[in-house]
Every structure is written in structure tokens, then in C-alpha cells.
């Protein structure tokens, strides 16, 4: 009986049952339709796999309990009164359930995404091992194609985009004085769609014909002719995209409707601004990649003619639709990082953010311009020649708002009291590396130069300077900055600094030389290469292995600090924003009483400046207030 | 001034439940949520319309495909059916606000059945068109756009069905009728989107 009860209650047993039922349903649907139409053979692996890729995850989500409340709501049944049992984590098991607490979901996001980060990183190591010398060493060319495709897809869709959603999930409601996100159940559903997408991408290696091997861009018509693994990519993108859109919608509604009294838009911390603009991008742009993958799935599964030139299809249309999402996507992968850097630099340099309003305006300018540059990815694709120059100009224009941000950060640092803590080091590393990536970006915007280095390692170097030296450094900065808040413990500062310096040095020795071999013409996405590049590639591979190992310093630091680190005070950085005014980790409902915001978030060094005040509570005169002594006025 | 922090013993006060969040906008969360969702839906249609644009404008291919016809008359009647369902939906919504339950229920069921009629006519059109999405790119895009819209009609019908079930069970009052309002907003979106699909595929 106990087992039957387990199968009825939401959880992993029921999830397993749901998957089995969904599998059976998908199988019946496929075989039934084929029998109805008289198609043979009745059991066709490709068709069944395509259907099961959609059906089984939905069975899993239903079984796990992501829809339970809505089913009751839809049928008009009396909903179970909220007892907050699905809110907050009391043991590690609660992290493996459908949990509606934004703090739990934030940690679920961060841990899951770092798992996929490791997976993607190991694939990078394998690729570097293969590329250490000319010729074929370890993997076949097709496996190599699969490795870089899955590496890129995991890093983009399962690490960078969602880890920012995870950090924001944890921090953002606290920052704006909200007890939770606007739609906690939708938030839980968004999270649980994510591991599905990641596992699907990894599972593609087991598909007949190997994993998808067309790059993360999956250009048609190559992707309509490749083996079954490609379908795993297209369906995984639908789950990751749906998760992304639902989270973005949730952020937007939370930011618009749930800010604390007194928190006007111009008193929001820049992390909130960054996520506001990013979420707008996600809501507007992500449906386009969903559309492009729908086209692919339909062409592959139902043999429609979106990309069949013989029957009037248009293959360039794929690239336009794909890049209309995927160029804004690079800002989806960068703007939340900008927000983190603003928080970190202002707090650790003890100065108000320089040009706060311009920082927010430049975010808006980036998202508007971000929609006007997609075709700069297609200079060599044979698209309309007249579109090239406008795209080059708009691409260069984007450097303006980005430059405003870079110089504002520098001006924030100017004459600040700079504390070289680990998050600050990563923020400084970000500024230098992202600027380099930005410069090579402007170079790539120049049409003749772009044509010269198209599909070479120069592009690989550029993408890694902006996505690793840019985004991932901001992620590390954010993780270190909020680690005390999330776990209630301090990380090891020495190990953090070692992690920064080693990764900073070996990041540059890994990706810096790629600029050189790229300009020399070494093609990307090829397992073998000419002997003239052998010396640099051996150097890059060795650097990459050391670079990969630096990550274990981070893991060791995080794991041991989380378990045994010194207990963190509520506000170790003496920051003004609201999330630091509650205990570390925060109480289960964030606030006893929603605070009132009375000033800007970064008034460091302004005598008497306060960001938020808590009603009905005299300031606690213990160290918990942060900073040690209980100064009535922060005169810093 | 640094504000003192909430003491950690608040963990023990969790049975108090969360504080009441501040409502910082005149729009409530659910309404804003459905509008944002509709924006993303419009963009999904945008991707399909891009495919249509590339076929008809960029490449300048004939529409419909040579030797095929599109039944404009039936679709026009069907359009009228769907548009009229927007009015019954509005009626249901206004009645829900005014507490007129019989009118609300009549409006909800009328909308539901008008939508169902639209979907049936659409499926019937698929059966009798005589060409398939596999035949040519025109077919792919015609079936793609109408199919995407049909999927949205189906979702709208599901939402309406939920609203109907709940209305029959005595839910909704003048103060609490979001379960009618939100499906209504979605239904209007499905209607307006159909007008664009209809004009692009059948008229132009």
C-alpha cells in the first residue's frame, strides 16, 4: 500500500510512472497513426523517438507534480489551502522536488547549470586533446563535430543563460523587497524543464548516428539531412526555450508589480534593471528560435518543405530566423552579467555607480539595437548584398552603449576604496577581457575583415573572450559575491584569489593565441589541421588543460566552504541593497514585513544615505547588521 | 545608515506565512503575465510569417502554388464565426463583472462552441484541400501558419473549457472573475491573429 501511495503522491516514483505511461501513449499514438494511414513499417525508430522526446518529459513533469495545482484549478476542484509545505528547503531532499521558493529554485538552477558546465567543459578538454597535434588522435571527425556542437549548446542553453536566471531568481525578489516571485509555481515548472533539455542534449550521443553534429546553429539544409541526434537538439531547444520564456515573463511581472513601496524604477539596483531588459529580450526574441526549430522538426519528421529547395523552400530563411533570436541571445547572455558587475564594483569599491541612469538607458539601447544586427552573422551566406552595410553600421553602434557601461564602471572605480576581494577581481578581469572581446567584435563587424576570418579560430577566440572572459567571469563574480548570502557561510578568500589568477592567466594563454592562428586561416570546427598550426595548438591545448583544472579549485572552495566555512554575517560586504539587510541565508519568506525604500541603492560614502528601512523594527545593534559597529550613520 | 538585519531566528517564524507583497503597479500580475505571454506568441507567429514573407516577397513565388486553389469563401464564413466568438466572449466577461451568472455561462459556452465550429471547419478544409504540406513550400507554409493558429485555438478552447467547468461549479463572482478574463484576453488574441493569417493566406 505504501508503494501505491508513493505512486499517487507527486514525486519521483510518480514521475517514473508518468514517463512510462507517456512512453506507452507516444508509442500507441505513433503506431496507431501509421496503422490508420497504412504506412509501413509500423515501428519506425525515428518517428517514435521524435514523439517520445516530447511525450516522456511531459509525463515526467506531470508525475513530478509540476501541474498538480493547475489540474485542480482547471477542474474547479477546491484547491488545497496553501500550507507552504512546497516552499523552502528543510533538507537536501527538498531540492529534488517541485519547490516554489525562489531561493530553492535559484540554487536548483545554479547547481544544475554548473553540472552541465562541467559536462560541456569536459567536452572542450576532449576537443583540445584531439587538437593537441595535427591528424586524428582520439575521436573520429564526426564525433568531434558532435563534441563541439554539444559543447556549445550546453554552454549556451544550459549554462550561461539559465545560470543568470538562477542567480537572479535567488537575488532579485530579495533586492526589490518581494516575498517571492510573482508566479512561484510557474517558476518551479521553468526550472524543471531545464534538466530535461540538458539530459536530452547529452543523450543525443546515444542516438543512432551519434549526437547532433551541425554546431549549435544547426543550419539547414545540413540539419535536415543528418541522423536522429539532430532531433534531440531541436526538441531540447524547445524545452530550454520554454523554460527561458516562462522565467523571463516571471521576472518582468515580478519587477513591475512587486517592488517594495518607494522603490521606483530609478531606485532599482542595476541587477534588477539588467534582468528587466534581458527578460524583455527573452520574451520577444526566444520565440524565434522556437520557430526555427519547429521548422526543422517539421521538415525532419513530416518531410515538409521549409528548407527543401527543390520544392520551393528557402534555406537562407533559416539563418535569418535563427539569428533574429541568436543575436539578441548574446545580450541575453551578457546583460545580467553587466548587472552583477555593477553591483560588485559599486559595493567593493565603496562608491555610487557612476552614471546610474545612463547605465540603465544603455541597457535599453543595447536591447533595441540588438534586434537590428542579426545579419552580421551572415556576411558570407549569400544574403541580400544591400543588407551588409546597414548591419555593419548598427553592429558598430552597439559598441557605444557598451562603451558607456565600460567607462561608467571605470569611473565608478576611480578614487574608490577598492577592496580586491575575489568578486572584485573577477569583475576587473571581466572589464579587461570583455573589452578585448568587444574590440575583436568590432573588428568582425567590418565586412572585409569578417570575410577574411569567417569560420576561423579568430571567431572562436572572439566568442570565448566575450562569453568566458565576459559572461563566465561575471558568473564567478556573482557566485562569490552572493555565496555568503546563499549559503550563510564565507568562501575561502585565498583559494578564490588563486582561482581568479590561474583562470585569468590560462584563459588568456588558451584563447589569446587563437586570434593569431585564426588570422592565419586555421578553420574552426575541424578535427584535423595543417602542420603550420601545430606549435600554437600544442600550446593552446596545454593551457586549456591547466585552465580546465583551475575549475576544480572553485569546486573545492565552494564545496568545503558550504560545508565547513566560517559562518557569514548578514552583510559581509556592507552593501546597501535589500538582500543584504536580511539574515544569511535569508528567512524562508524573505521579510517579516516588506521594507520601504527611501533612497538609491548605491549611496556609498554619502552621509546618512539609506536605501531601505524596515518598519516596526529598531535597527539591531549587533554585528548582524553588518560592518561590526552599529553606526547610526554610514559615513564611509 | 545601515539598517539592522532581520535576526536569523525568523526561520522559526515561518508558520506566520509570507508578508503581503507590495502591489507596485496598477496592473495585476496575472493580466500583465498573459499580455507578456501574448507578446511572445506574436513573435512565434512572426517566425512563421517570416517564412511566408521569404516565399512570397523575397523569392516572389506564386501564391497559391500553381494548379491549386484555396477555398476563400468557406474561410470567410469561418472568419465571421471566429470574430463573432470574440463578441460572445466579451459578453461573458462583462456579465461576469456584473454578476449576471446565466449570461456569463451562456457567453462562455457560446464562445466555446463557436470556437469548436471554427476548428471543425478548419479540419474539414484540411481534409478537402487536395494538397498537403509535403507537396510544395506553399503547402508547407499554408499548413504551418493555419496549423500553428489551430494549435492556439485548441489551447484557447481548453482554457475556455476550464472556465466553463469552473463556472458550472459555481466559481466566479463580480470580485473574482480572473478565470474568465484571462482566457478572454487570450481568445481575443487568437481572433485577431486569425485575421492576419486569413488576410495573408487567403486574401492577398
Could you please describe the fold and organization of this structure?
The complex is a heterodimer of chains A (636) and B (204). Chain A has 636 residues and is mostly helical. Chain A has four domains: 73 residues, no CATH class; 233 residues, Cytochrome c oxidase-like, subunit I domain (Cytochrome C Oxidase, Chain A, Up-down Bundle), CATH 1.20.210.10; 217 residues, Cytochrome C Oxidase, Chain A, CATH 1.20.210; 48 residues, no CATH class. In chain A, strands 1-2 form a two-stranded antiparallel sheet. In chain A, helix 5 runs parallel beside helix 7, helix 5 packs antiparallel against helix 19 and helix 10 runs parallel beside helix 13. The longest helix of chain A has 35 residues. The radius of gyration of chain A is 25 Å and the shape is globular. Chain B is an all-alpha fold. Chain B has a single domain, classed as Cytochrome c oxidase, subunit III, four-helix bundle (Four Helix Bundle (Hemerythrin (Met), subunit A), Up-down Bundle). The N and C termini of chain B lie far apart (66 Å). In chain B, 39% of the residues are buried. The N terminus of chain B is likely disordered.
Amino acid at each position: 500500500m505504501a508503494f501505491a501511495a508513493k505512486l499517487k503522491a507527486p514525486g519521483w516514483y510518480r514521475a517514473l510512472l508518468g514517463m512510462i505511461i507517456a512512453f506507452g501513449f507516444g508509442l500507441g499514438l505513433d503506431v496507431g497513426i501509421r496503422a490508420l494511414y497504412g504506412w509501413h513499417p509500423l515501428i519506425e525508430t525515428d518517428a517514435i523517438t521524435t514523439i517520445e522526446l516530447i511525450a516522456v518529459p511531459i509525463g515526467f513533469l506531470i508525475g513530478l507534480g509540476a501541474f498538480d495545482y493547475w489540474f485542480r484549478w482547471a477542474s474547479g476542484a477546491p484547491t488545497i489551502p496553501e500550507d507552504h509545505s512546497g516552499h523552502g528547503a528543510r533538507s537536501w531532499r527538498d531540492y529534488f522536488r517541485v519547490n516554489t521558493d525562489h531561493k530553492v529554485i535559484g540554487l536548483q538552477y545554479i547547481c544544475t547549470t554548473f553540472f552541465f558546465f562541467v559536462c560541456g567543459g569536459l567536452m572542450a578538454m576532449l576537443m583540445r586533446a584531439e587538437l593537441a597535434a595535427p591528424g586524428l588522435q582520439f575521436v573520429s571527425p564526426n564525433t568531434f563535430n558532435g563534441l563541439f556542437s554539444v559543447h556549445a549548446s550546453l554552454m549556451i542553453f544550459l549554462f550561461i543563460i539559465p545560470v543568470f536566471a538562477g542567480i537572479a531568481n535567488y537575488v532579485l525578489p530579495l533586492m526589490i523587497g518581494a516575498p517571492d516571485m510573482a508566479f512561484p509555481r510557474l517558476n518551479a515548472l521553468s526550472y524543471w524543464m531545464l534538466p530535461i533539455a540538458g539530459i536530452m542534449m547529452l543523450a543525443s550521443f546515444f542516438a543512432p548516428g551519434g549526437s547532433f553534429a551541425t554546431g549549435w546553429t544547426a543550419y539547414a539544409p545540413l540539419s535536415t539531412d543528418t541522423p536522429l541526434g539532430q532531433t534531440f537538439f531541436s526538441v531540447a531547444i524547445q524545452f530550454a526555450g520554454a523554460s527561458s520564456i516562462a522565467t523571463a515573463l516571471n521576472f518582468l511581472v515580478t519587477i513591475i508589480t512587486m517592488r517594495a513601496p518607494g522603490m521606483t524604477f530609478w531606485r532599482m539596483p542595476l541587477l534588477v534593471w539588467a534582468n528587466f531588459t534581458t527578460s524583455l529580450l527573452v520574451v520577444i526574441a526566444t520565440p524565434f528560435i522556437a520557430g526555427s526549430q519547429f521548422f526543422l522538426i517539421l521538415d525532419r519528421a513530416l518531410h515538409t518543405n521549409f528548407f527543401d529547395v527543390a520544392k520551393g523552400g528557402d534555406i537562407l530563411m533559416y539563418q535569418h530566423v535563427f539569428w533574429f533570436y541568436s543575436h539578441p541571445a548574446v545580450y541575453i547572455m551578457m546583460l545580467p552579467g553587466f548587472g552583477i558587475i555593477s553591483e560588485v564594483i559599486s559595493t567593493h569599491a565603496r562608491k555610487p555607480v557612476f552614471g546610474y541612469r545612463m547605465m540603465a538607458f544603455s541597457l535599453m539601447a543595447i536591447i533595441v539595437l540588438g534586434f537590428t544586427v542579426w545579419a552580421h552573422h551572415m556576411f558570407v551566406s549569400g544574403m541580400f548584398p544591400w543588407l551588409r552595410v546597414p548591419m555593419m553600421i548598427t553592429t558598430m553602434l552597439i559598441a557605444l552603449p557598451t562603451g558607456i557601461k565600460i567607462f561608467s564602471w571605470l569611473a565608478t572605480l576611480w578614487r574608490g576604496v577598492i577592496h580586491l576581494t575575489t568578486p572584485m577581481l573577477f569583475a576587473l578581469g571581466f572589464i579587461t577581457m570583455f573589452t578585448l572581446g568587444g574590440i575583436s567584435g568590432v573588428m568582425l563587424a567590418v565586412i572585409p575583415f569578417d570575410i577574411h576570418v569567417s569560420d576561423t579560430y579568430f571567431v572562436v577566440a572572439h566568442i570565448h573572450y566575450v562569453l568566458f572572459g565576459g559572461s563566465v567571469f561575471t558568473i564567478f563574480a556573482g557566485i562569490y559575491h552572493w555565496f555568503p548570502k546563499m549559503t550563510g557561510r564565507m568562501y575561502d578568500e585565498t583559494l578564490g584569489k588563486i582561482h581568479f589568477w590561474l583562470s585569468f592567466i590560462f584563459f588568456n594563454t588558451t584563447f589569446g593565441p587563437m586570434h593569431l592562428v585564426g588570422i592565419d586561416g586555421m578553420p574552426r570546427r575541424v578535427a584535423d589541421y595543417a602542420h603550420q598550426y601545430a606549435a600554437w595548438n600544442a600550446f593552446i591545448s596545454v593551457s586549456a588543460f591547466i585552465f580546465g583544472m583551475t575549475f576544480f579549485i572553485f569546486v573545492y572552495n565552494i564545496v568545503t566552504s558550504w560545508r565547513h566555512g566560517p559562518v557569514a554575517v548578514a552583510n559581509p560586504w556592507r552593501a546597501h541593497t535589500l538582500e543584504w539587510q536580511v539574515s544569511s541565508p535569508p528567512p524562508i519568506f524573505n521579510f517579516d514585513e516588506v521594507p520601504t525604500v527611501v533612497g538609491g541603492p548605491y549611496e556609498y560614502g554619502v552621509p546618512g544615505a539609506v536605501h531601505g528601512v524596515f518598519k516596526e523594527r529598531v535597527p539591531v545593534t549587533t554585528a548582524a547588521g553588518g560592518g561590526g559597529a552599529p553606526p547610526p550613520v554610514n559615513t564611509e | 545608515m545601515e539598517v539592522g538585519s532581520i535576526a536569523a531566528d525568523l526561520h522559526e517564524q515561518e508558520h506566520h506565512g509570507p508578508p503581503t507583497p507590495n502591489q507596485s503597479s496598477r496592473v495585476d500580475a496575472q493580466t500583465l503575465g498573459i499580455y507578456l505571454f501574448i507578446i511572445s506568441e506574436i513573435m512565434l507567429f512572426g517566425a512563421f510569417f517570416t517564412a511566408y514573407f521569404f516565399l512570397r516577397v523575397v523569392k516572389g513565388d506564386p501564391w497559391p502554388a500553381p494548379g491549386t486553389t484555396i477555398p476563400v469563401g468557406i474561410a470567410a464564413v469561418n472568419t465571421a464565426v471566429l470574430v463573432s466568438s470574440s463578441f460572445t466572449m466579451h459578453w461573458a466577461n462583462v456579465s461576469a463583472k456584473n454578476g449576471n451568472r446565466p449570461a456569463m455561462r451562456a457567453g462562455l459556452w457560446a464562445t466555446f462552441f463557436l470556437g469548436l465550429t471554427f476548428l471543425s471547419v478548419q479540419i474539414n478544409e484540411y481534409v478537402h484541400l487536395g494538397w498537403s504540406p509535403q507537396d510544395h513550400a506553399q503547402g508547407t507554409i499554408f499548413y504551418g501558419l493555419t496549423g500553428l493558429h489551430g494549435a492556439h485555438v485548441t489551447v484557447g478552447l481548453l482554457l475556455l473549457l476550464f472556465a466553463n467547468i469552473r463556472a458550472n461549479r459555481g466559481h466566479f463572482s463580480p470580485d473574482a472573475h480572473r478565470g474568465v478574463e484571462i482566457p478572454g484576453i487570450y481568445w481575443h488574441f487568437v481572433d485577431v491573429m486569425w485575421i492576419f493569417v486569413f488576410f495573408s493566406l487567403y486574401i492577398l
